[in-house]
Amino acid sequence: MFPKYNVIVVGAGHAGCEAAVAAANLGSKVLLVTMNMNTIAQMSCNPAMGGVAKGQIVREVDALGGYSGIVTDHSMVQFRMLNMSKGPAMWSPRAQNDRMMFAAKWRQMLEEHPNIDFWQETVPGLIVKNGVCKGIVTGLGLEITSDAVVLTNGTFLNGLIHIGEKQFGGGRAGEKSATGITEQLLTLGFESGRMKTGTPPRIDGRSLDYTKMEVQDGDAKIGKFSYSDTPTIAKQLPCHVTYTSEEVHETLKEGFDRSPMFNGRIQGLGPRYCPSIEDKINRFADKDRHQLFVEPEGWDTCEIYVNGFSSSLPEDVQYKALKKVPGFENMKMFRPGYAIEYDYFPPTQLNMSLETKLVKNLFFAGQINGTTGYEEAACQGLMAGINAHQAINELEPFILKRSEAYIGVLIDDLVNKGTNEPYRMFTSRAEYRILLRQDNADIRLTPLAHKLGMINMDERIERVNAKIENAKVIERYFDDTSVDPDLINGFLESIDSSPLKQKVKAKSILSRPNIGMEDVRRELKEIDTFLSQYDDETVTISEVSMKYEGYIRKEQEMVDKMDRLESLKLSEGFDYKAIKSLSIEAREKLNSIRPRTIGQASRISGVSPSDISVLLVHIGR
């Protein structure tokens, strides 16, 4: 009934979709297995992509040939570049999306791919022979063979939904949970744990009074995520902001005795940086209000997502409390919020390629690894799909360094440090933020994808090379062009910046901390005329390169130092237990994680600088 596939991907969420297209774009024949073909790439939580650090990840996925950025651009209803008041390392694109358009576009792109087949069914088991994964067993008992399997089970593994005192099995509202895989993996020697996440109620937007809320429009200059020729939307939908109050909090507290969070029914840890509303009230008792973002679910629906009101309280308490929020007085609810508990597998059981250490050719990606968020899942899926293809073709694994991508930071953190709470990416997790900006993801990563052999990257690499060359031309122009004091001093004095006493190069004007490229273009028409022949992206990257030249150089020097540690290899059979001068904790961690380099060993929790010195001595350094 089935041919043998190169790669089987189990689960068609954000991780599964990216895993499927990554392997397929490298030439593997892929089977994407999902419990429901109608929920492929569903936005289970908020209808948005990107945000702080997450936006950088989406652009990195796109630069590597993934589809999340393309799909986001095609389904966007609003665009904002966050943190523009801060330095460029913090600028982060974020889009509100039409939930139905997002899923439909993903499915269309998957179905158009000649290397991807589909099968709708549950997968309760794997075929594992002599420590190698050989395929899957379906709920009907069918055995489908493959060279590799990627598990992207999301919140479905023994998923348990909580609403107040009610609890029932499910991987998502209206969908059943998945059983069997956890139990089999445990028999194979894997360790598992439980995590928790949640989602807010969905509201009928026709019943809200938006005049009582603050309007949050998108940017006047509408951006996008993909470096390809995706459309830019002509109009945008507004979001709105409102607030809880002490009255709302008191109403919510009435249900605390029935809350599964507070009476011990939920065992798994939830995301620290995206707490439920009851958790916020409990943890931040000094706050008399919390911000709520009222987000539309799409162009042609009245459904509203109440960002900031995630809850597992009884539905009657959620309803009663929301009615006291400004603008929600006549609110009608589509469905209450809920919490969901699910199984995950501590990611220290993985290699940097996301292949499991215990079973060859078995890869994990997404929430099964303890992460939270569409973007974190998508980038893991991409990397797992690439590395599944690499593994079965006996090619070197594709591993990104911390200095190359946020994706590299995320995977390095997971594998070397592990996590016991849902892992979310932040800019603060990256040591080399100024190098890992959202504007240069294509320059950093597209050449790597092109070298890997990803299809449709020839045109992309031409664009990247043109962008690099044009940015250099702009920088040379600013190095060579002199500015007359008479043309700029009026502006400089208006912003309390020291006036010029003689001609200076344009680059020195731009390098002043309170002056940006837009100021230079507005005041110096000759420069504006020159820059008008280049696109905004190229102008921005040249501006950042000139303005932050010193910082970029210092970070690159740090990278070069760390690369020297990365070049020092550790053999797979290294006997750490025999080195008594290592701390006991270091011996245990090193023996468990089996780092490939001294650099990787230095980032393992519990391995101290003195332990690294001991290792250096033992490898002759």
Q: How would you portray this structure in words?
A:
With 621 residues, this protein is an alpha+beta fold. Helix content is 36%, strand content 17%. It is built from 21 helices and 22 strands. Strands 1, 2, 6, 7, 8, 9 and 20 form a seven-stranded mixed sheet that branches. The protein has a six-stranded antiparallel sheet with strand order 14-15-16-17-13-18, with no helix packed on it. α6 packs antiparallel against α8 and α12 packs across α17. The protein is globular.
Topology:
Elements: E1 5-10, H1 14-25, E2 30-34, E3 48-50, H2 54-63, H3 68-74, E4 76-82, E5 92-97, H4 99-111, E6 116-120, E7 125-129, E8 132-137, E9 143-151, E10 160-163, E11 166-169, H5 181-187, E12 193-199, E13 202-204, E14 214-216, E15 239-243, H6 246-253, H7 277-283, E16 291-296, E17 303-307, H8 315-322, E18 333-335, E19 338-344, E20 362-364, H9 374-392, H10 406-417, H11 441-452, H12 458-480, E21 482-483, H13 485-494, E22 504-505, H14 506-510, H15 517-523, H16 525-531, H17 536-547, H18 549-566, H19 584-593, H20 598-602, H21 609-618
Helix content: 25-40%
The count of DSSP E runs of length 2 or more, i.e. the number of strands, is: 22
The helix tally amounts to 21
End-to-end distance, in Å?
Answer: 57 Å
Principal-axes shape call: globular
Coarse structural class: alpha+beta
- Look at the structure and give the mean pLDDT: 94
Multimeric state: single chain
